[in-house]
TrEMBL record:
<protein>
    <recommendedName>
        <fullName>RING-type domain-containing protein</fullName>
    </recommendedName>
</protein>
<dbReference type="InterPro" id="IPR050952">
    <property type="entry name" value="TRIM-NHL_E3_ligases"/>
</dbReference>
<feature type="repeat" description="NHL">
    <location>
        <begin position="538"/>
        <end position="581"/>
    </location>
</feature>
<keyword id="KW-0677">Repeat</keyword>
<dbReference type="InterPro" id="IPR011042">
    <property type="entry name" value="6-blade_b-propeller_TolB-like"/>
</dbReference>
<dbReference type="InterPro" id="IPR001841">
    <property type="entry name" value="Znf_RING"/>
</dbReference>
<dbReference type="GO" id="GO:0008270">
    <property type="term" value="F:zinc ion binding"/>
</dbReference>
<keyword id="KW-0175">Coiled coil</keyword>
<dbReference type="GO" id="GO:0061630">
    <property type="term" value="F:ubiquitin protein ligase activity"/>
</dbReference>
<dbReference type="Pfam" id="PF13445">
    <property type="entry name" value="zf-RING_UBOX"/>
</dbReference>
<keyword id="KW-0479">Metal-binding</keyword>
<dbReference type="Pfam" id="PF01436">
    <property type="entry name" value="NHL"/>
</dbReference>
<dbReference type="InterPro" id="IPR001258">
    <property type="entry name" value="NHL_repeat"/>
</dbReference>
<keyword id="KW-0863">Zinc-finger</keyword>
<dbReference type="InterPro" id="IPR027370">
    <property type="entry name" value="Znf-RING_euk"/>
</dbReference>
<dbReference type="InterPro" id="IPR013083">
    <property type="entry name" value="Znf_RING/FYVE/PHD"/>
</dbReference>
<feature type="repeat" description="NHL">
    <location>
        <begin position="505"/>
        <end position="534"/>
    </location>
</feature>
Amino acid sequence: MDASQRNLTGQRTETFKKSKAVSKVQSVRLRRQQRLQRQDSIGAIEELVQCGICLEKLADPKMLPCQHTFCLNCLQSHLLAHKLLVKQQSLDSQSALSKKAAAIKCPVCQKKVELQKGVDSLNDLPKNLYIESVLKLIDGNTSPLTPKNDYRCVKCQIFSQQQGQCCQHCMQVFCNVCWNEHLTELESNLTTLVKQVDESKVRLDHKLENFESRCRQLVENIKEATLQKIELIKMDEEKVLKDVQIIMQEGKVAHDNVDDKLQELKDKLTSKSFEKSPGKVFSFMNLHKETSRLLSQVSHYGEARVIFDPDTFKLDQDTEGVYKDVGDGENVTLSRSTSSLERFEVASQHYRSRSFVPKLVWNKCPRPASAGVPPWDNRLLYIAATDTHTVLILNKDRRKLEGRLTSSEMVYPQGLAFSKTNSEIYVSDKWKHCIHVFSKNGDYLREMLSKGTGNGKVRSPDGIAMGPNEELVICDTGNDRIIVVNSLTGEHLSTIGLVNNKTMLNMPTGVAVSGDKIVVADTGNHRIKIFYMDGRKIHEFGSLGRDRGQFRSAEVVAVDTSGCILVGDGGNARVQIFGPDGTLVKIFGGSSSGDEGFGWVSGICVTPQFDIITSDSKRRCLRIF
């Protein structure tokens, strides 16, 4: 035999050994599975032949109309116990009970079964032939057990020909001896019941004390809220009275101005130089014209009546708001112009008529937060990119990145604000708890504020905005407040949202400034709240929900030039537009928009041309509508 034949023979031998080993393992697994199957089968058979009352193997199985099977003796005991409870009287014998019609409920499904012959009707129930045949296979015995008509005590299991006692509490039958013991046991349980009653009384007293404490706290809250409202009303009163004083002073100035001109005119009319003037007719015409004008001013003086509205606690006028009784170029305005209302009507009509299809979609924005347009170049768009720890600068017209603001000190850029006077960019850093300042050329200038709870301190600052006097308004989210600081030095100027050292805000994340008003996205309370710059609250709107005008995390907010308020409703994946008074104007976006809609509105701003810019941190995109 050559070497190749020996190798072939060796390979065949090795293959045979491996196949034999595999066959042995498979046979062991097969025997194990068969053994487990037999065990499962035996367990299923034992459960099949078990009585649902005594939980033992069925004896003389009888099947109820509901197909449930029980021992005949167990059904008889069950019926007797039920009869003893219902009748509340002793029966002389089973035969006396068997002559009366009765009913029994299946112990498993509680289906009612009518027994016209009483207990005797149980003997007429059909046998479960299938289970009986299984019992024969198990026991090898073809003769069923003979049911006994004796009473069996549930405690001592002793049979007795005498009538037993049925406990209404336990629904069990006892012999006379065990019945007395059972009564003694029930009586001993009274001590436990007394203890439980005492413990319940103590708990009830504690609950009353807690309830009264909550009511007292409620009274304190009501009184405190009332004092706050009174304080706010007094502040409104002081402001309105100051306005009245200004109006009175302006009216006095107007009166003195006209009075001086009347005196000058009188001096001209009584002057003797008129008689010597060569152009008497021309002079007379000028004096007559001036006299007519002044008399007209006197006639119209005071016609611009000021009206006080007690509902809004504001002053208004029943005319155009400008006195016509002073000289040219000296008109005195007494109330706000109606142009703001006109601008709002135009803007609201503009929003209602728009379809809000984005004209620019940028899907490669690395988890954007706030976005903003600088006042020195409306072609640029600054975007806080949290993933890259930078602020991106996008040219909207060219649709191209033109640069970025970077610093090793910046960890998580969130909010953006711009100073037109100083040409500076302010970036809130939510994780480093500070404000970074850059020049418009991209140079890092300084860092303001630090982590803490006092003045000049912040915790997790979020949205920021520039005030009317170049002050910086910051959402101090971790401290549940709004703070106003000097944009150059970081000096603390005021705090918004605190009343008697208690905050009315809950995680404010967005802020916008419109004139002398601060609009706050009170995210934790799912509301928009509006304050004066001095901290007085004007009004609020919104609530938690999915309906129109409701919010689920009002994340960001912006205000256009007409005073309309745009809210990024993050949880509802939509933008809602409101009038200055909180009246709903328009909604766009929402979950019904599918893949084209928002995931989570994380930033919003609006240009003077009413272009709306939104950033979406969940879908990592930016849209311009």
